[in-house]
Amino acid sequence: MTERPVALPPSRPRGPDAGALGWLRANLFNSWGNTLLTVLILWGLAVILPPLVRWGFLDSVMSGDAAACRAADGACWAFIHEKLLFILFGTYPHDQLWRPGLVVLVFIVLLTVSCDRRLWRHWLAPLWLVGLGGMGVLMAGGVLGLPAVEDSLWGGLPLTLGLATVGLVVAFPISILLALGRRSTLPLVRGLSVAWIELIRGVPLISLLFMASVMLPLFLPTGVTIDKLLRAQVAFILFASAYLAEVIRGGLQAIPKGQGEAADALGLGYWQKMVAIILPQALSLVIPPLVNTFIGLFKDTSLVLVIGLFDLLRTAKSSLSDPFWHGFYREAYVFIGIIYFSFCFFFARYSRWLEANIKHSQKPL
Amino acid sequence: MRREWVAAAWTVLTLAMASGVAQAGTTFDAVKARGFVQCGTNVGLAGFSSPDSNGRWTGLDVDICRAVATALFGDAEKVKFIPLSTQQRFTALQSGEVDLLSRNTTWTLTRDTENGLHFAPATFYDGQGFMVAKKAGIKSALELDGASICVQTGTTTELNLSDYFRSHKMTFQSVVIEALSEVNHAFFSGRCDVLTSDTSQLASIRAADAPNPDDYVILPELISKEPLAPAVRHGDDQWFDLVRWVVFATLEAEERGITSKTVDAALTSPDPTVQRLLGVQPGVGHSLGIDDKWVYNVIKQVGNYGEIFQRNVGKESPLKLDRGVNALWTQGGLMYSPPFR
Fold this sequence. Notes:
The complex is a heterodimer. By secondary structure, chain A is an all-alpha fold. Chain A has a single domain (66-361), classed as MetI-like (MetI-like fold, Orthogonal Bundle), CATH 1.10.3720.10. Chain A has helices spanning 19-27, 32-58, 66-71, 77-89, 98-114, 124-140, 157-182, 187-201, 205-219, 228-254, 257-265, 270-285, 287-300, 312-319, 329-361. By secondary structure, chain B is of the alpha/beta class. Chain B folds into 2 domains: 24-125 and 227-331, D-Maltodextrin-Binding Protein, domain 2, CATH 3.40.190.10; 128-224, D-Maltodextrin-Binding Protein, domain 2 (3-Layer(aba) Sandwich). Chain B has helices at 2-18, 27-34, 60-73, 89-94, 109-113, 156-167, 180-188, 199-209, 237-255, 263-266, 272-277, 294-301, 305-312, and strands at residues 37-42, 50-51, 57-58, 79-84, 100-101, 117-119, 124-126, 128-133, 147-152, 172-177, 194-198, 216-218, 226-228, 231-233. Chain B is globular and about 60 Å long. The interface between A and B is large, with 42 and 43 residues.
């Protein structure tokens, strides 16, 4: 009986890098520059965190009335508690609040479902269109026994999400056409696309909104008014399409010429070539800048407050004007900041994951 | 062929917009046919137009809208509020998006003429005023000689301030600060003796930012004129008359001592002026083209001017403004109604 020699698994030498102390030394104090930075950041946190925790948690007022809040030193979360429904849903009739609530819920479910690449089938786009239409009907009512609610009463989170989503969903196909148009060899198509993009990109969103809400009604005959929300939505779509078009054009330009030539050699027509060969590659290349633009546009919807639409920022600001709850600015802004951040952070993380996922499943060009 | 195309496109466009047609004829008839008043209000101004926690609009400007709706339809809820930003407000009125603008708008010559507006009587006389700490014991702005005054830079407020002090041969030390919130902070932390701004503004600053609102008083003097008045567009005098007399009715009722609580009892009053006012004796509604009981309805559902004022900006509200120049003429204020006959 001889024992067979067994190779020992290699063990990591316990050197100066092991353990928590080692980790600290390797990552935070590995050079005098990093040590200085670490110390500075720790000092900064020590200065900022304790008052923040005291304000936000320890000294805060969770429920009660405004008088209790004014007596306390900390944050007045009671204000958010009191104004929650107004900030989230604006002036929507109070007994019908389940409708915007359901809309937001369905929206989030739809968004989460669409994130899974395995579900990216042809029915996803119609599903979104049906979903958005359904949400619109649920908000507007007037059918199926739902009392009608005019869109001038819509507000808060559904309005912000609606403006952004409808805006991006409609603007995205337009922007693809614009990007293709700008690279077209037909002078008229190219000229119009360039004019559209440059004209709209050349002015701030706020001026488009003012044009739509202040100038446009003056050109219409007296008494004829176009819905305020619709005007803002159209202005937003125009704006979004111009920006997205340039991002997509960047992707189109990055595709090697050989791809198009190969498609031509196969005898594919223009649209077949674009839909089957060029666009899938171009769009997956520009995911980071696309998401960047999406996030920017999502936050840009808050500009509609200058034309009196009650988006999330406006409802927060208006709830501050209640004389009984006047002056809790920090709490209101922190609250809607958290909402905006959650959505944007979700987009950002998802785009990173998607990028990695697509790269993983794609053969290098 | 082409012309037919254009005509067809135009028809489609017009039909598409038809749902948005606000009024065909005059404002008065259009509002009556529609069944509710479209009222342009502020998107959020404490005491004048702000949503409560249930999303219901409250405030002095809002109550004026409700009063007009009550006069026309006998129902204070027959009104649709359209919150407007500062830039939008005149366009919205001119284009017919709203029938009535009740949005803390100062009545000025150019607005009355060039912007094509008619202003109803002022519902709130605002103006630049002064706020001081109560413990300083100051009762009048004329006692402010030598005071240090917090003021925002580059505003007409700053100009009015120096004009006022120069014309009264007083001196002052200005503490000029850029941002509004910092001006307030400077005042409440004691860096200056006096804070100056429009009085309605001072009242909401006091309600929101003062450590203890009761420690501060707003002095009675106003050194600038900001009469805030509801406005309608040119072109329909009947509508203008209605809005004007609704405001007057709230004043007249207060002068006669009729409140929302006593209005039912007042119906049996032997006083012929009260009988006429409340429509017990006919006449007061006919010439306006509305129900004779309209004043009764307005007072019953919305209240007289005193009630509207106290509830929204006065003693019963967090703003705690004194009546000051907004008192009735019989009490030394500017609020005056022509006779109802």
